[in-house]
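Weekly puzzle thread! Below is a chain. First person to post its structure in token form gets bragging rights.
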Amino acid sequence: MQWLTTGPLKRFFAAKPDMKNSIGQLMGWRDKIINARITEIDKGRRRDRIHLLQSFFEAKTPDGKPLSRADIEAEVLVLLLAGADTTGTAFSSTLTNIISSPDAYSRMMMEIDTGFANGNLSQPIPKAAEVSSHCPFYVSCVKESLRLSPPSPALFPREVTADQLPLIIDGKIIPIGSEVTCSPFLTNRDQEIYGEDADIFRPERWLENVEKAKMFDKYNFTWGYGSRICLGKDLAMMELMKFPLMFFRNFNVELCATSKETPGPPRLVILGGLFHWGDIWFNLKRRKI
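Winning reply:
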């Protein structure tokens, strides 16, 4: 199918930065970001700035050459495409689950406020490591939301190859060339691992037993598994340790009662292989902090 993006039909099937569709707009935005950074570098400004884009400019190929402009464009586009919707969905899952559970919401807010009051969480925005260390219940709320509502529940099959040991499932050898897959939406609700209440949002489960929590993490399929695990996992978790926490820090959130104007309750919808939330209606009020 390569001819679709290289031949005369390319303009119909390959996105370009000047297009007005969603991918084209992202490509245009990407190019502006890259061009702005190149201008800064050419003027000798902010060379010591530490961020992902700068790391692409400083990266080297195996033969010691810098990445080409096309390589940098591809890397930046992957970041924009792969992490935006999934992290946003993870935030909305955390938000919806917490405000739907008054006891969990109250406990989490007490933990966050105490962390800032004691100086364990930096101002104005705490480091992800600080949140992980001093807000265990908040972290468990994020993990529980990711477990119940994996942002990408789609099936990503893997092929059984001849260069690996025989794959045996339930006593049966899977033939070479077969595709094997499963859905994290199902595996993350396995009652043998997470208990009989596996379908319920109960963040306390991550704090009740250290060994069980390790098992929960081990078999959590939200990020994929093995050599094909999500490369952006650490970045996504860093974001989830910061943004939702600061949102709750600065706003009181309350679900709206179901009405004609605010239909509900919140529901999960699968679109394009990704989860997103529909019918989330809530009231926001800035907190005095």
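Puzzle host: Confirmed. Bonus trivia for everyone else. The two ends are 57 Å apart (CA to CA).
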